[in-house]
Amino acid sequence: MIECKLFKDKKIDDSVMFRDSYDSLGTRTLPGRDRSSPSSSICPASRAGRPESASGQVSGHESLPVLFSDVPLFDGDDDDGGERTFQCTLAIIKPEVTRLMHKVECVMAQNGFIVIMKEVLRLSRDQAAEFYAEHALATYFTRLVDHMSGDPIVVYVLSKRNCVEEWQRLIGPADVPRAKRLFPVSLRAIYGVEKGPDPVANAFHGSDSPAAAEREIKYFFPNMKLDPTTDVEDDLVEYIKDAMMPTISKGLSEMFNIQPNDPLRWFGNWLLTRN
């Protein structure tokens, strides 16, 4: 098994999201399922009475008792060898939502999903039929194959704690009318256009189990290493510690010294001044 909240509505200018047409997506077919590529993620005053230096820094300030880079990043990120439950799952944005992929990626980020791999591509009918082979006896199979091969799709490998279950929860039931009725803030309820119970134009696909996730990821990204002995979280944690935490730690230390009235705004502005 690969071990590797609900949608918070945030107003985003739809006119910007719809600028891309299908012709501008840089799509390509899936040539023998023999390539994988790195992902690209999109998302995309001092306190009164305290002496200040000319630069605005508080003088005679306290020092932080610990480096933020030493703070555990995840529950159980310590030396006791605790069990980790990070997983990967395969997610697909179907043709009816492809042009909104940047908006969807913002939703992914808001809900804690990390994009490990991403590919915009166009399936052939044979490839779509092969991927959905388990639905071959369903009455909607031909329509599903036509739909998934008619226009570009966006395929992702996502990572998060309990990722398979969490992505399924975020997108909601495959039956769009049921999703709209019972889970109105799920992604399928918001973006799905299917009128009946068939899982055709329901906007998203998600692996329904860790085993299915492994199989489906291998279908689209056959060169991606999915060795069960490899702890994906180790790589993720090391990347965050090495590439992100030194800068974040420095910024949080400066913010602790200054203690601005609006810490989040101050920290955001501070990050924008860094390369």
From TrEMBL:
SUPFAM superfamilies: Nucleoside diphosphate kinase, NDK. InterPro entries: Dpy-30_motif, NDK-like_dom, NDK-like_dom_sf, Nucleoside_diP_kinase, Nucleoside_diP_kinase_AS. Residues 26-60 are annotated as: Disordered. GO terms for biological process: CTP biosynthetic process; GTP biosynthetic process; UTP biosynthetic process. Residues 86-228 form the Nucleoside diphosphate kinase-like domain. One of its GO terms (molecular function) is metal ion binding. Coiled coil: none annotated. SMART domains: NDK (SM00562). Keywords: ATP-binding, Cytoplasm, Kinase, Magnesium, Metal-binding, Nucleotide metabolism, Nucleotide-binding, Transferase. Residues 37-48 have a biased composition (Low complexity). Belongs to the NDK family. PANTHER family: NUCLEOSIDE DIPHOSPHATE KINASE, NUCLEOSIDE DIPHOSPHATE KINASE DDB_G0292928-RELATED. This is Nucleoside diphosphate kinase-like domain-containing protein. It comes from Acyrthosiphon pisum (Pea aphid). The lineage of its organism: Eukaryota, Metazoa, Ecdysozoa, Arthropoda, Hexapoda.
